[in-house]
Specification:
- This protein is α+β, with helices and mostly antiparallel strands.
- The chain folds into two domains: about 5-125, Beta-Lactamase (2-Layer Sandwich); about 135-215.
- It contains eight helices and five strands; from the N terminus they run ααββαβββααααα.
- It has helices spanning about 5-15, 15-25, 65-70, 115-125, 145-160, 170-180, 190-200, 200-215; strands at about 30-35, 45-50, 80, 90-95, 105-110.
- β1 (about 30-35) and β2 (about 45-50) form a beta hairpin.
- The radius of gyration is 24 Å and the shape is elongated.
Amino acid sequence: MNELTESDYDILHAMENIVDGIAAMWGEHTEVLLHSLDANNPSIIKIANGHITGREVGAPITNIALVKLNEGKDVSDAYITKSPDGKTLRSLTTIIRNKENKAIGMLCVNSNLDAPFQSMMQSLLPNIHSHFDFGVTSETFARNSDEMMYSSIENVREQVVNDSSIPPSKKSREIVTRLHELGIFDLKDSAQIAAKGLDISIHTIYRYLREIRAHEA
């Protein structure tokens, strides 16, 4: 390990939101932490769900983390460890390097395998509020932007068409409103693609968009 520079710490601090993001993705039974590999103080500088191992910011690097650092892999294989109170953890460690390719930090993920199954599933399936049925957001994994737009337009169209609370005369405007909220009309050629997909004129779409944007102003 070496003494870290200000630039090294800038890299590490820029990754702190990644810790929060992974923890939010996997829920309360997964601990995520960021280790500094500063020779003067190799310790945790960011941690989420630290209740799993009882650690906080400032806790020292572990012996296993040091082993993973010296294995020569920037992304370790998953491995099994035990928390201080006996929890079985499935862990993975990723080495963070600076532009000189020196190891400056470690991103560690520890999932509690002893957590009750029902509690684990509840943390993985949060109550997501959206326009979509059953609280589940339909994400489009498209291969290009046109495919993404067509898929998004069809998803929104189907929602609105099947919503009996929206009068038939207002369905087209509601579809355009929802597509606007999704940011679809920020994309190139989106109005033309929407007009074709919704079977309405492009002039109608532009009129709806002018009205929506005027209302937002």
